[in-house]
Amino acid sequence: MTVRANIPLIFERSTPGRRGYRLPELDVPETPISELIPEEYLRSEAPALPEVSELEVVRHYTQLSRLNHGVDVGFYPLGSCTMKYNPWVHEDLVSLPGLSAIHPYQPEETVQGALELIYNLSEHLAAIAGLSKASLQPAAGAHGELTGLMVIKAYHNFRGEGHRREMIVPDSAHGTNPASCAMVGYKVVEVPSDSRGGVDVEALRKLVGPNTAGLMLTNPNTLGLFDENICQIAKIVHDAGGLLYYDGANANAIMGIVRPGDTGFDVVHFNLHKTFSTPHGGGGPGAGPIVVSEALAPFLPGPVVAKDGDKFRLVMPEHSIGRVRSFFGNFLVYAKAYAYILSHGPQGLREVSEAAVLNANYVMNKLKDIFELPYDRICMHEFVLSGACLKEYGVRTLDLAKRLSDYGFHAPTVYFPLIVEEAIMIEPTETEPKSTLDEFIEVMRQIAEEAKENPEMLTSAPHNAPVKRLDEARAARHPVLRWARQ
Amino acid sequence: MSEKRLYTKEHEWVVVKGSIARIGVSDYAQNELGDIVFVELPSVGDVVEEGEGFAVLESVKAVSDVYAPVSGRVVAVNEALEDSPELINESPLDEGWIAEIEIDDTAQVGDLMSEQEYMEYLKGV
Fold it and tell me: Could you give the 3-state DSSP secondary structure of residue A332?
């Protein structure tokens, strides 16, 4: 199979007059468009659409798709992002007309099944989080973070404690955490990690105070490590009057094993597109529901679904922060997550997390003698190696990442978290069989050998990919963002 | 009047002439960051506190704050970096300077490392 990288743009394939479809002659009297649309809204020239046949369109996009590496093609060990495989049965399910052919403007009594699905999914997510009530409104993980912080802020304001404007964030946090704080007008206070990779509890004790709004934490954190001090951390923050926010990006490690609510968290967001196998990447669409404690439930964004006897209806929580999304969010994404939860059941979800953790520990233990493992302890769903040991051969983590694609593997997350030098973050997920993990381990071993014997092989990689090493710096400095007609 | 280059533990350098401190990042820092693709400069007139982030370097790997090695007021910025952020990689100690700060208290610079001390410090990083 040869894959050509220099595929022209669809616009460049255009041939004047070529059509995909030819419509029959109009058999009713034609009304001039100028009588239907006011003149100021009419364009003066035809849009510059490519003129191509259907076959050309199909070939064009199929060729483009062959340049891509997705989980359908091969292993995708992208840590902290849980790029797991999504079962195809979800697609069959959401094409059912009862789910796909309904409209958000329909009267409630005609969409009771859809409302029941939203209600039940909310209840299941609350059960998994160990908290009280959910709102499915946020459309993505970072949107969930922002919404959760808005709920925390509304809660403090309601209690006359609007001066609490400091949010504590660990130095290992996802970049979205401090960004979400800034979006709600909070000041970010960074807490360092201790030598085991968890929150430095003594440092935290000194940072909390009367202005503390709360703490944002990912547990397991971005090093893939579970913070065993979480109950103590929660007590310190709660005693100071703050609340605990759980960034659920790494929830794939804990389903059915630990409930964040039991360890003191007040707000949780889940990425349905990470943990509950809905589409991820390429624009999703995503869903980042939040689940909150009883005390925060009145502030949730709405509408949410309430159950009266055997009827379901849409309601706004009493002190709701309002809408954060048009209509009811990405409904068909909920349907997929709901199917995933029901088809696994409580025991099945626990097994998902156990397999994800087992796979990560297996790969970690096979690789830790080849690379460096700065925080050497049992990991959760992911782990972070350091590629600093390659530096003496003039090779960096970036080169290793590029070389992996020559062997048919997607690169892991690199250079994150920032607290590990030349970081290589690997998350196999539960869906990979041991044979794939063994192949990946063997390739990583080979690449480490190549780095010593033939470093040029890495620094000039990739060699077999559709494109050679891209000039990332030039692309970022001088991006070409649109095609201009000659 | 000293013109020797002083360093911080966060890998910024300072050259003080009179009450004006010219600031940039070390060769080690630019090498660790990788290709710089964007520099967010402070504005002339900004008042900065020692230890506070006052400029941002964006590389292909990460986004990093540049911390003010001294307190004072920004009196000049290297506008050439807006179009040519690569100057930080090509010439970190000279053409890649970032800003000049009028120092509140010249005694402050005594807390910084000499070039030799910084080289020793790097061995332990």
Answer: helix
Q: Tokens in use for A447?
A: 């690449």
Residue at token pair 């020692």 = B50
Interface of A with B (CB under 8 A): 175, 398, 414-416, 418, 472-473, 476-477
Cβ-count burial A217-244 (b if 16+ within 10 Å, e if not): bbbbbbbbbbbebbeebbebbbebbbbb
CB contact under 8 Å between A418 and B62, yes or no, is yes
In chain B, the residue whose alpha carbon lies closest to the alpha carbon of A422 is B32
B35 vs A contacts (CB less than 8 Å): 472-473, 476
pLDDT digit string (tens) for A17-28?
999 888 899 999
Asked if B67 is an interface residue toward chain A (Cβ–Cβ < 8 A), one would say no
What is the percent of chain B with per-residue pLDDT over 90, rounded to a whole number? 78
Binary contact (A416, B60; C-beta < 8 A):
no
- ipTM given for this complex: 0.77
Quick one: CA torsion of A239, A240, A245, A246, rounded to 10 degrees? Answer: -50
CB-based contact A472 B35, cutoff 8 Å: yes
Q: Search chain B and give the residue with CA nearest A388.
A: B32
Q: Is B116 exposed, middle or buried (0-12, 13-18, 19+ CB in 10 A)?
A: exposed
Rounded Cα gap, residues A250 and A74, in angstroms: 22
Structural domains in chain B plus CATH codes: 5-117 (2.40.50.100)
Does residue A284 or residue A279 have the better pLDDT?
A279
Q: Is any Cβ of chain A less than 8 angstroms from the Cβ of B107?
A: no
Q: Does the beta-carbon distance from B61 to A473 stay under 8 Å?
A: no
pLDDT classification of A1: cutoffs 50, 70, 90: very low
| Domains of chain A with bracketed CATH | 10-66 (no CATH), 91-344 (3.40.640.10), 351-475 (3.90.1150.10)
For residues A315 and A167, what is the distance between their CA atoms, to the nearest angstrom?
30
Q: Does B51 touch chain A (CB under 8 A)?
A: no
> Per residue in A180-230, pLDDT tens?
999 999 999 999 999 999 999 999 999 999 999 999 999 999 999 999 999
Alpha-carbon gap: B6 to the closest alpha carbon of chain A (Å): 25
